[in-house]
Structure formats: structure tokens, C-alpha cells
Design a protein that fits this description.
Layout (H helix, E strand, L loop, with lengths): L1 E6 L2 E8 L6 E7 L7 H4 L11 H11 L10 H8 L20 E5 L6 H4 L9 H8 L25 E6 L2 E6 L8 H15 L7 E5 L2 E7 L6 E5 H5 L8 H13 L5 H15 L10 E5 L5 E4 L24 E4 L2 E4 H4 L17 H11 L1 H4 L3 H24 L1
Antiparallel strand pairs: 1-2, 1-4, 2-3, 5-6, 6-8, 7-8, 9-10, 10-11, 12-13
Helix pairs in contact: 11-13
The protein binds adenosine-5'-diphosphate and magnesium ion (MG).
């Protein structure tokens, strides 16, 4: 299929998209490289766009928009959707997503972004939501259920975009039999609210027999999320604090304000909840897709892999968790050292937080089945981190 890769209403390039292999077989012309997905820019060499890594990376980027192979219960989801691979879903809705504005426009058609984007135009989410989040779902019945932004979500957790009163929300479940992720998301939001950190607001919801977290879309028709992974892709890797410092410099040079404070806030949160999963696709920046201006650091999102989630043992309290700082994995006591200005944190705002979390976990105990011991341990861990932060502030 001959088509044009679009960024909202801007033509990026013309190409042949192979609907069977889902690869880009040929690139005809690049119209506007600046509007291309950020990660592709560094592969662009003017003379020969087809024989350089540019075309391969275009295909890789597009494939990477799909549901990843490591999505929890992927086989079951594909069966319920009656498709063999996530790539089959990629171009069912022009490749559109709710995290950016890229899409494939077939040449010779008059399709308009305004008529197809998922920010303005509703989509049938009910069947996908059931297929993704319910324990007992039927096969989907309506082909329109495959024309949704659910074809283009990243991450390992079962998830689904839904619409409520016009707002697009992302629902996320737990991982395999673990159900703590949604509670950790809500705890993270409470901490961010109390400490005044920019964040995505997660609340709890129940879908059938499952507890899920629910957060509104933080992207609009005028913006896109560019993750740190994309930004760092063409920067030299040091495997040290240098990676972090260079990232801050890069964002500042693009005109984003308060970069260091905002990124420090993310690591303070990670320290408090012991988040082990701050990989480079779990944070980034927001860019204006019309002007290409870098608007802001993205609000803090995806905080579920926290509070010792992988090491819970009913018999003993193991504390063996480490956080991520760019390409390094570090104990949280080390990780927190990246925060230069810790005195600015008013830790008294966290007064009563373990009790608040204890109440929340007890409220849902009949669904989660968590023992009192587990709830108590989670609150002990949280309290321990708050006390550690207090000490750090006192000693700084
Ligand atoms: N509220 C949101 N608005 C827009 N895009 C989002 C939102 N939350 C997540 N995303 C996008 O979806 C991806 C997967 O979500 P994430 O919360 O990271 O899931 P997981 O826990 O499975 O990794 C993110 O990397 C981001 O690109
Ligand atoms: Mg994620």
C-alpha cells in the first residue's frame, strides 16, 4: 500500500507499506524529517534513504507501536481477538495511538486526521476491555472492536483504553497473579499530590472481578510523548551518572523549565515507594506536534512495580530491591544521592500516609485476599522509606 506517514496534519514521508509483513518496503520521498518520530531522525541521511538503516528503523519503530511480546497473557488476548500476532492489529486503525499523533494515510484517499483520531472520535472499547482484563471473556464479535487505540499500547501489564464522559482513561491490571500494581499507582499519586509533584492521577476501579488502576490520558491532540529511550538513543552511553546529567542538559537546551527539580521528584518518589521499574520508556517529555517545541517533562507515570512487589514472602520480610538510574541498577540508598536539593521536600506532608495506605488496602481486602500480615508489611516498608527520607533531609 502506498501511503504517507503523517504527524497529525504534517506529511513526513511517502512510502510503500507492506500489509502482510508490516514492513516498509520502500521510501519514496522524505518531506519533513523534523516531524518524524524522534527516534528516526538520527538515522536519517539525506542521500539514500532506502539503503541506510533509516528504512529498517522506520519498520522497527512502527512494529514497536504494537502490543509487545512480553504483555501479560498475550496468547489469551490474541485468541480472544482472533488474531495471530500483535502486528496484525498495527494498521487496523491507521496506526493511530493516544500517546502521539502519527498515522498512515493511504495515497489517493482524502482521509482527514480530524475524522479518525481517537482524541475526538469515539471507539468501541467494551470488547477489547473485556478481552484484556476479564478472566472469562468471549471471543470478540465486532470487527470495529479492533479499530481502537488499544492496538498501539506499550508495556507488560494487561490494559485497555476506555471513554467515560468524553475523557479517555487507561485501565491497567496487575501482572499474572499479583494485584498490587494498581494500589501502588494510587499510593504514588497520593505521594505526588502531597509533595506537589507533577503526576498522572491514578485512581482505583474494579472491572468485574479485578481491581484496576485508572488514569486519564495526559496527551492531547497537540502533543506527543517522547520517552527518554528515544531521546537518549543517539547519545553516547556512559553507564554512569553522566547519562542522567546529559539528559537533563538536553532537556534544558530544548527550553524545558525546572528540568532537574522535576526529574529529582521522580527519583524521590521512586525512593519512597521503592519503584524498581523506572526504565527509559517509563519517563520522558511532551512535545508540541504543531510547533515541535519541547513543552515539559512528562508527568510521572507507571509506578506499579514497587514496595518489594517481586519479593513478598508470607514467612519473612525480605527487602532486596533496587531502583533504576538510566542504565544502572542501584540500591535505593544510592539512587537517592542524585537528588541535589532534598531540603526543599516538606516531609511532614507525608504524615499519616502509611495509615492511609493501610486503610485503602483493608478496604479492598475482600477482593485482593491480602493477609493482614502482607498489608502490615507493605505499610512497614513505606514507613521505613519515609523515615529514611526524613533522616536524609535532616542530615543534608
Ligand atoms: N495516561 C496516559 N496517557 C497517554 N499515554 C500513556 C498514559 N499512560 C501510559 N501511556 C503510554 O502507554 C505506555 C504503557 O503504559 P504504562 O503505564 O507504562 O504500562 P506498563 O505498566 O504496562 O508498562 C506508556 O509507556 C506510555 O507510552
Ligand atoms: Mg511502562
Amino acid at each position: 500500500m502506498k501511503c504517507i506517514l503523517m504527524n497529525k496534519n504534517t506529511e513526513v514521508l511517502s512510502c510503500d507499506f507492506n500489509e502482510v509483513s508490516k514492513f516498509f518496503d520502500k521510501i519514496y520521498e522524505v518531506y519533513n524529517i523534523d516531524y518524524a518520530p524522534y527516534i528516526l531522525k538520527s538515522f536519517y541521511i539525506d542521500e539514500d534513504i532506502n539503503d541506510t538503516p533509516f528504512r529498517t528503523n522506520l519498520s522497527e519503530w512502527f512494529k514497536g507501536r504494537g502490543i509487545p511480546s512480553w504483555r501479560d497473557k498475550l496468547d489469551l488476548l490474541l485468541l480472544r481477538l482472533n488474531v495471530v500476532a500483535p502486528s496484525e492489529l498495527l494498521d487496523k486503525a491507521f496506526g493511530l495511538s493516544l500517546s502521539d499523533q502519527y498515522w498512515l494515510k493511504p495515497v489517493g484517499t482524502d482521509i482527514k486526521y480530524e475524522d479518525i483520531n481517537f482524541f475526538d472520535n469515539d471507539f468501541n472499547y467494551a470488547e477489547f476491555m473485556e478481552a484484556s482484563l476479564s478472566k472469562n471473556s468471549k471471543m470478540i464479535q465486532n470487527a470495529s472492536s479492533l479499530k481502537t487505540p488499544n492496538n498501539t499500547t506499550d508495556g507488560m501489564l494487561k490494559k485497555a483504553w476506555i471513554i467515560e464522559n468524553g475523557t479517555r482513561y487507561l485501565l491497567k491490571g496487575g501482572y499474572k497473579n499479583e494485584t498490587l500494581q494498581p494500589f501502588n499507582e494510587v499510593l504514588a499519586s497520593e505521594i505526588c499530590k502531597r509533595l506537589g509533584f507533577d503526576h498522572v492521577e491514578y485512581t482505583l476501579d474494579t472491572y468485574k472481578d479485578t481491581v484496576v488502576s485508572k488514569c486519564p490520558c495526559f496527551i492531547t491532540k497537540d502533543t506527543e510523548l517522547i520517552t527518554c529511550y528515544q531521546i537518549r538513543n543517539d547519545m553516547k552511553r556512559h553507564d554512569s551518572i553522566e547519562d542522567y546529567e546529559e539528559y537533563i542538559k538536553k532537556l534544558e537546551s530544548e527550553g524545558i523549565k525546572d528540568v532537574r527539580t522535576k526529574i529529582e521528584n521522580m527519583y524521590i518518589l521512586d525512593f519512597l515507594i521503592m519503584n524498581e521499574d523506572r526504565h527509559l520508556n517509563n519517563f520522558g517529555i511532551i512535545r508540541d506536534v504543531n510547533t515541535l517545541k519541547w513543552v515539559d517533562v512528562a508527568p510521572i507515570f507507571d509506578n506499579g512495580q514497587s514496595l518489594n512487589i517481586e519479593y513478598y514472602d508470607e514467612e519473612e520480610l525480605h527487602i532486596s530491591s533496587e531502583g533504576k538510574l538510566f542504565y544502572e541498577v542501584k540500591p535505593f540508598d544510592e539512587l537517592i544521592k542524585v537528588v541535589k536539593d532534598i531540603k526543599r521536600i516538606d516531609v511532614s506532608k507525608l504524615e499519616g500516609l502509611p495509615k492511609w495506605f493501610d486503610d485503602l488496602l483493608h478496604q479492598y481486602q475482600n477482593i485482593t485476599g491480602y493477609s493482614d500480615t502482607r498489608i502490615n508489611r507493605l505499610c512497614i516498608l513505606l514507613n521505613r522509606q519515609i523515615n529514611k527520607l526524613k533522616k536524609l533531609i535532616e542530615n543534608s
